[in-house]
Design brief:
By secondary structure, this protein is an alpha/beta fold. The chain is built from six helices and 18 strands.
């Protein structure tokens, strides 16, 4: 069994892995890409590089360094996290258990520019199926998204709600729904706006049709660190995860590092927090064994 899992293969996650792996902790990093850093064309303000370097170069070099130290790097998309005696990370292709998890997937949350979405946040518009699904038991609801994350949220809601419609806002839904599931429908129409009275009541589409549902769960793009944290009951400050000086959340064994903790969005900060989280995880694992 893995002793430590790190979700995110950017600078915070890879930095953490360098410290756990060198301490002899069996470490697995799960990440689909290098996040925002991988898209950076030129970086001139990171220590140790006389000439500009691309984000992709830094990402690749960090992953190679981590692999050399014994880290297992898995290219996969994490879609959920839970606890069943051990922390359990669910991905598109599998499930992994660990005594400790470091969240390092950045702070990105895709909020669509749909009229009415701000009006009904907390009043029918939610960003966490595990957190808020209970309030919609027995009702018809919708999930906004077009990928694995949206399907994962829909599957999370199925045991609670009456039915789920995945609305893609005109995007192609590229994820296969299991043949055994007949309570999920996909609507690929472009959205005009969200509407209702005091609470959200209906999705209006640009073709003049509408969908009456009691709530919408936004699950665009991929799940971020704050999404995972909320599923375990970790304290968040908006879209950022609350951590102490050890990069620990209020959930035992759960740590966070990088952009997901807020503050300065810089590589140097992510690398430091990853290093701190990694060293603290090593101490934590020694104390529980």
């Amino acid at each position: 069994m893995n002793e430590a899992i790190i979700i995110g293969s950017g600078p915070a996650g890879i930095s953490a892995s360098l410290y756990t792996a060198r301490a002899g902790v069996k470490t697995t990093v799960i990440g689909k890409n290098g996040g925002a850093l991988a898209k950076a064309e030129i970086i001139e303000n990171y220590y140790g590089f006389e000439n500009p370097v691309s984000g992709a170069q830094l990402i690749n070099a960090g992953i190679a360094q981590s692999k050399r130290l014994g880290t297992e790097i898995i290219s996969d998309e994490a879609v959920g996290i839970g606890y069943d005696g051990k922390l359990t990370v669910k991905t598109v292709n599998g499930e992994y258990k660990a005594d400790s998890v470091i969240l390092a997937t950045g702070a990105s949350r895709v909020v669509p520019k749909i009229a009415g979405i701000d009006t009904y946040e907390g009043k029918g518009v939610s960003y966490c199926a595990v957190c808020d699904g209970f309030f919609y038991r027995g009702k018809n609801i919708a999930v906004l998204g077009n990928g694995e994350y949206a399907l994962s949220e829909a599957m999370e809601l199925l045991p609670i709600v009456k039915s789920v419609a995945i609305i893609t806002d005109g995007m192609e839904f590229k994820t296969k729904i299991p043949d055994s599931i007949n309570m999920i429908t996909v609507i690929a129409k472009e959205i005009e706006k969200f509407t209702g009275s005091d609470y959200f009541e209906r999705v209006l589409f640009k073709d003049g049709t509408s969908l009456a549902v009691s709530g919408v769960f936004v699950a665009l793009g991929t799940a971020g660190s704050a999404d995972f944290a909320k599923k375990l009951g970790a304290i968040t400050n908006g879209k950022y995860i609350a951590v102490d000086e050890k990069m620990a959340t209020n959930v035992p064994g759960l740590y966070a590092a990088g952009d997901c903790t807020g503050g300065m969005f810089q590589i140097a900060k992510a690398v430091y927090e990853g290093a701190k989280a990694g060293t603290e995880v090593v101490k934590y694992l020694k104390n529980i064994n």
